[in-house]
Amino acid sequence: MKIGVIGTGNVGGTLGKRLADLGNQVFFGFRNPNTPAAQTLMDAGGPSAVATTPKGAAEAGDVVILATPWDATQAAIESAGGLAGKIVVDTTNPLLPGLTGLSIGTNTSAGEQVAEWARGARVVKAFNTVGYGIMADPAFPQGKPSMFYCGDDAQAKGIVAGLVAGLGFDPLDAGPLTQCRVLEAFAMLWISLAVKYGYTPDFAFQMIRRNAQ
Ligand SMILES: NC(=O)c1ccc[n+]([C@@H]2O[C@H](COP(=O)([O-])OP(=O)(O)OC[C@H]3O[C@@H](n4cnc5c(N)ncnc54)[C@H](OP(=O)(O)O)[C@@H]3O)[C@@H](O)[C@H]2O)c1
Q1: DSSP states of 129-161 as a string?
Q2: For a substitution probing ligand 1, which of 10, 26, 125 has the most ligand atoms within 8 Å of its CB?
């Protein structure tokens, strides 16, 4: 699969590298491809990694991973040009400075805002509820961590669920895009436990169920 990455930092870099390792062609949309971080990522991505611009990543990817800081997200989408028809995996969390909370939520969400900015894109929220260290290595002795995703396009969700599973998570459909409201709040639970309340970032959530299908 062809995958574009907009926002090539902790999350975009980690997911992009792992997806390249799995044989996908990954187009990293660097704002500046000449930084040491960009060079390191290209080396790590191997022959499946292509250095391009955010616009180039948007054009080339069938799936486009959006992994920008929240306050840069609208500008990043605009600089990417049209995302209509693309499957956009929105990993963002609308964090306040100091990780003290979310700047929007409850009756809307970053995911819904992304869908408005990226008009015509098929937005699926995923990968926002654990840290990038878990995305790099989701293997735990207790089994696969859960990865909730949500969106309004069933086919897009199916494709993203496949990527989630390929990366070693248990994909769980959390419902329509409005569920970003709770998934982004849920991310705050992970963040607060990881950075404030003593659990360190080396944990993930796992859903256990009776009568699971
Ligand atoms: N960190 C985590 O563990 C984690 C986990 C889940 C979700 N998230 C969410 O994922 C998103 C990314 O987090 P991160 O930790 O990966 O951030 P990060 O390491 O700071 O990386 C952000 C990336 O976005 C790029 N960027 C900034 N403005 C841009 C623009 N206008 N156009 C294109 N690219 C732009 C940066 O490019 P430059 O390199 O050129 O500055 C950088 O590559 C955030 O919304 C965060 O809340 C983070």
Answers
A1: SS-HHHHH----TT-PPEEEEEES-HHHHHHHH
A2: 10
